[in-house]
């Protein structure tokens, strides 16, 4: 299910609430989606079988130095000033082909509400350390070692703060070559029980 660009975060939460009516769910999210998944898991422990949190971007409500928030805000501003196709052209010129294709599809599907959606993402208060420590379900964290927008240090911090978390390192080239690597690195460990804290490659 694609998020509603008019209410991105609330649409994530609504979808999770609906899915959990049938029983505990395995929640997975990338970047902002990872944060919402972790937040929801902390507040609904009885409804969660496990979480795959890929490419977390920040910890804490103060996002002054968060690269993902800064990028979202800058893109929203550029979209309002220059229009969708111009911004897509600029993005495609500076992005790997796989990422350019994914963003092009996503941005076009959310237009004309895309700037508001990006503003919402830019203003999102990322999970605080105390909330991360409250997550009781097993969590697989997937971090990219070469992603400046989603620093691997954040993935390492989340792994240290979440009681039952494992960190799995990938590269952006691996993700671009086969997006299924997120499932392979994230879901497979969650099938093991019990899940102990450690770091694997």
What does this structure look like?
The protein is an alpha/beta fold and 201 residues long. The chain contains 10 helices and 5 strands. The protein has helices spanning 8-19, 32-43, 67-82, 84-94, 97-110, 114-123, 129-133, 152-161, 172-177, 181-190; strands at residues 25-30, 48-54, 139-144, 165-170, 198-200. It has a 5-stranded parallel beta sheet, sandwiched between helices. Strand 1, helix 2 (32-43) and strand 2 form a beta-alpha-beta unit. The longest helix is centred in the middle third of the chain and has 16 residues, at 67-82.
Write the layout of secondary structure elements.
Layout: H1 8-19, E1 25-30, H2 32-43, E2 48-54, H3 67-82, H4 84-94, H5 97-110, H6 114-123, H7 129-133, E3 139-144, H8 152-161, E4 165-170, H9 172-177, H10 181-190, E5 198-200
Parallel strand pairs: 1-2, 2-3, 3-4, 4-5
Helix pairs in contact: 1-2, 3-4, 3-6, 4-5
Low-confidence parts, pLDDT < 50 over ≥5 residues?
A: 195-201
- Structural class of the helix and strand makeup? alpha/beta
The number of helical runs is 10
Please state the average pLDDT score.
93
What percentage of residues falls in helices of 4 or more residues?
40-55%
Amino-to-carboxy terminus distance: 30 Å
Query: What summary fits the major beta sheet?
Result: 5 strands, parallel
Radius of gyration: 17 Å
In what order do the strands lie side by side in the largest sheet?
1-2-3-4-5
Count of β-strands: 5
Beta strand %: 5-15%
Shape: globular
Following the backbone from N to C, one meets helices and strands in this order, namely: HEHEHHHHHEHEHHE
């Amino acid at each position: 299910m694609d998020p509603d660009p008019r209410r991105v975060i609330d649409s994530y939460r609504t979808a999770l609430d609906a899915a959990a009516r049938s029983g505990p769910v395995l929640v997975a999210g990338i970047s902002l989606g990872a944060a919402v998944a972790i937040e929801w898991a902390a507040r609904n422990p009885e409804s969660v079988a496990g979480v795959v949190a890929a490419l977390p971007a920040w910890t804490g409500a103060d996002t002054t130095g968060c690269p993902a928030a800064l990028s979202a805000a800058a893109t929203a501003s550029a979209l309002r000033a220059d229009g969708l196709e111009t911004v897509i052209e600029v993005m495609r010129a500076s992005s790997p082909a796989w990422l350019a294709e994914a963003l092009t599809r996503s941005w076009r599907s959310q237009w004309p509400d895309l700037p508001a959606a990006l503003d919402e993402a830019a203003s999102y208060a990322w999970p605080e350390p105390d909330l991360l420590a409250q997550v009781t379900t097993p969590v697989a964290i997937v971090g990219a070692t070469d992603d400046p927008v989603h620093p691997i240090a954040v993935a390492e911090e989340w792994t240290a703060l979440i009681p039952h978390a494992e960190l799995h390192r990938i590269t952006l080239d691996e993700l671009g070559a086969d997006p299924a690597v997120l499932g392979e690195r994230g879901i497979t460990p969650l099938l093991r029980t019990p899940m102990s804290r450690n770091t694997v490659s």
